[in-house]
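Record minuted for everyone:
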Amino acid sequence: MAKVSQTHGIDARRVLEGLDAYRALEAKQQPTWPDAAAVQRASAELSTQPPLVFAGEADQLRTRLAAAARGEAFLLQGGDCAETFAAATADKIRDRVKTLLQMAVVLTYGASMPVIKLGRMAGQFAKPRSSDTETRDGVTLPAYRGDLVNGYDFTPESRTVDPGRLLEGYHVAASTLNLIRAFTQGGFADLRQVHEWNKGFVANPANQRYESLAAEIDRALKFMEACGVESAALSQTEFYVSHEALLLDYERPLTRIDSRTGELYDTSGHMLWIGERTRDLDGAHVEFLSHVRNPIGVKLGPTATVDDALRLIDKLDPEREPGRLTFITRMGAGKIRDVLPGLLAGVRDAGATPLWVTDPMHGNGMTTATGYKTRRFDDVMDELRGFFEAHREVGTFPGGIHIELTGDDVTECLGGSENIDEATLATRYESLCDPRLNHMQSLELAFQVAEELKQLRHSHDQEVRWRPGTNVPGR
């Protein structure tokens, strides 16, 4: 439990009692721990560990997201479907960060506005499941719920839930964050270097359709160089982390009272989101996150109604604070054009201005005849285009994208410039849960979204003027 004290005249005990109101409500998608005492010991130890992120960083992200909600910035949120402890190596973390940086440069130029970089990293260790169990060849074992709960290997030992994984997840998240901070502040994120990486992507004959956009970026950078522009903003960048706040036995002990303000922050990540399966108004997840000051996201599927959205706003963002609440829509390519415009208009007409982001991955899943879960790149792009079309129709701002991706050359999603087909899926299918875009598909997506952003900019006849003293766009 967090330390109880008097902070800024606030009764900390009362604040924590308010936070713990979630314990009386239904918490969906939680593991069944066989040893309650072991969970309590793990939670108690977690509560003594240093915070993974700091309140000031979460506040800064909320300011950035507020700009995106006003149409003055764009959010790029991406990373693994489910992080694993084994994959938290320097090379794999570097490649994920590299992919997001490459995408951000392209999006920044297309949007002519800052791009907020938010990784699905350093905490995406727990996953909701459609069933509590999994059966293979007549053997039934507990479902894999992410490395924070149990192992992926289909053995009784691996699938046994283990509270010790809560602490292991914390330490893996801490080391991941250390590397992210080193990469983004130590020169790895240099804008010129990142663009050189993208030039290599465009040099591939399959991607030459993006050559003109890459050439425009190249000219802009050479112009800056000729003008003698040289600052830390060229070599360093802001980078934030996020995950689904699913496992409450992990999130609660990492929630702390900020010594500056006396307010609660979940220090497991800068931004936390609530999934489509756990967004019940009277459920534990919504209640828990309503008490913390972090920016909060909520996934909205095709069954979401205007009333659902407005009630979530009332619960999670009653003060209508810019940057506090992000709606992440996951409708499916075949439904987004029918469902999203009404949702956007209803929320707009109620006077609320959340940040709207699209997740074009989760609504477009399919399973091949050979049993591989996959997605078609064309369906992902179709939902992205539908997202932009819906906002144009209603007159609201398409504020960002939320993508499951990896920096590796896996073969998990069909199509793209590499023309991955069903036969190719088996060659490098590595995801433990849902299929991810590989490095090349992620960059291809970024170039296509940049084209949408350029059209949006031109349609609004918008001239972007940067105030003196601000960072280089997107940095």
Observations:
- The longest strand covers residues 74-79.
- The chain has a mean pLDDT of 93.
- DSSP finds 15 helices and 16 strands in the chain.
- Residues 90-111 form the longest helix (22 residues).
